[in-house]
Amino acid sequence: MTTGSDVRAAFTDPAENLAFDEALLRVAPGSPVLWLWRNPVCVVVGRGQRIAREVRVEECVRDGVPVLRRASGGGTVFHDPGNLNVTLVLPGPADRPLEALGQVMSAAVDQLGLVPRIGDRGLFVGDAKLCGFAVFRTKTGLLAHSTLLVETSASLVGRYLTAAPPDPRPLDSHRSPVASLAEHGLRPGFPAVEAAVRAAASQLLGTLVPRPPSAAELARQRALLHTRYHYPSWHADGAQRAA
After folding, report:
1. Which of 39, 52, 169, 183 is the most buried (most CB within 10 A)?
2. Number of DSSP helices (H) and strands (E) in the chain, helices first
3. Contacts for 233-237 with beta carbons within 8 Å, 24 or more apart?
4. For residue range 154-210, what is the model confidence (pLDDT) as tens digits?
């Protein structure tokens, strides 16, 4: 079995988290990498999405909720400390990255005591989405990541994200009802949830050795902060600064 990495890193700035998320892919690892992380309250839109179609901007401004953009596609998500983000980076070329992530998340949720099913761009329990999925490819690998609602309430998600627009477009989010583990009656705590995800990833990918961020990953994170994630136009419309 492959020996991969379980990166242990924590940043307090959501822009730093998004930059590190992308940096893990950009350094082109030779074996699988898993990173579990949480963000402060924010809204994160997909790479090509339009904020006005996805986000209740006035509510975000009123409540001081920042709106940021990530490098991957997929739909807009709400982040807060009650939501666990799961990043999986695989060396390329790799087939069906979302299938691999879906297997990891499905096994973890099953271990926690619910019966999940993989549906449209996410993992569901009954009719409610528990996890969303997104993917980003380069020539040397791919990144698949997920948001797992652990304690975040569905009402809080709906406060800052728009309903499905009447004129759907290809890059629009696919809106579904959501419900967290807590809203399904499970409150295992974050250590238990993280342990379940790590165990599921190890079963699928082989041994994952805990380690801190590498110098190359931190250097790439700093570069991405300069060209993208600390650059307001990146978050507004996807424009990045010249390196």
Report:
1. 39
2. 8, 11
3. 234/69, 235/67, 235/68, 235/69, 236/51, 236/69
4. 999 999 999 888 888 888 898 889 999 999 999 999 999 999 999 999 999 999 999
